[in-house]
User: Which sequence fits this backbone?
């Protein structure tokens, strides 16, 4: 009898304001390195950890994410968070995917090294640890040493102690690209070519975002 292989999915949460090649390279690298069946991009509705600046309308961020991922058959975009009123918490999002894909599914939450540091300090971190594993991608300017000091288990072959998050550290080709920098570039009239898919760059300019 052939054994049924359980599905492996990656969840890539973000504000995606706008989505850029740093996000896409991270997702692709996780897909390949962790042999995931697919990566689901989840644009945030009202990000609870980002109150400083009002982000672009969630529908627009969703559309840009769709444009950016359209050509990749292993990438999907979910409206789960943008369809909700108010802020969404990662724990609720992961729980919903768990319900959709079942107990057997392996769920990996993919983040950059900066974002994982935030997650570790969340109130729900322990509950979250029971629901999924984490992949933290290296990101220029963020120190992984700091992160190891937080007693995270950076070893793929070792089970974490109960209550500790299982975090896989993933080396990716360093891309010093951020949405913040892209927004600045647009504001100051600098080029955003090659930092993100052409379709997204064209959409940003056409809709006169970030001016
Ligand atoms: P902002 O500058 O507005 O914070 P951002 O570029 O950090 O935007 P987010 O939408 O905040 O993008 O990030 C979503 C996820 O992608 C986070 O987990 C973040 O760490 C990760 N990420 C973003 N840019 C990169 C990059 N260049 N390399 C690796 N990971 C990245
Ligand atoms: Mg960010």
Assistant:
């Amino acid at each position: 009898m052939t054994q049924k292989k359980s599905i492996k999915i990656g969840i890539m949460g973000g504000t995606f304001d706008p989505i850029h090649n740093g996000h896409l390279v991270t997702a692709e690298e996780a897909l390949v390195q962790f042999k995931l069946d697919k990566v689901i991009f989840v644009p945030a509705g009202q990000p609870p950890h980002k109150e400083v600046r009002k982000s672009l309308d969630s529908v627009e961020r969703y559309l840009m994410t769709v444009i950016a991922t359209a050509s990749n058959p292993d990438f999907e975009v979910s409206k789960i968070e943008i369809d909700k009123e108010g802020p969404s918490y990662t724990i609720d999002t992961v729980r919903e995917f768990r319900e959709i894909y079942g107990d057997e599914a392996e769920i990996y939450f993919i983040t950059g090294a900066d974002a994982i540091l935030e997650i570790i300090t969340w109130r729900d971190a322990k509950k979250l640890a029971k629901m999924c594993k984490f992949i933290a991608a290296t990101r220029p300017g963020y120190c992984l040493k700091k992160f190891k000091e937080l007693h995270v288990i950076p070893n793929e072959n070792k089970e974490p102690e109960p209550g500790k998050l299982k975090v896989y550290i993933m080396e990716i080709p360093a891309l010093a690209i951020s949405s913040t920098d892209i927004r600045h570039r647009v504001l100051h009239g600098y080029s955003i070519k090659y930092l993100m898919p052409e379709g997204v760059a064209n959409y940003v300019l056409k809709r006169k975002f970030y001016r």
User: Anything to note?
Assistant: Residues 14-17, 22-23, 26, 111-112, 114-115, 137, 139, 175, 177-180 surround adenosine-5'-triphosphate (ligand 1) (CB under 6 Å). The chain has eight helices and six strands. The first strand starts at residue 8 and ends at 14.
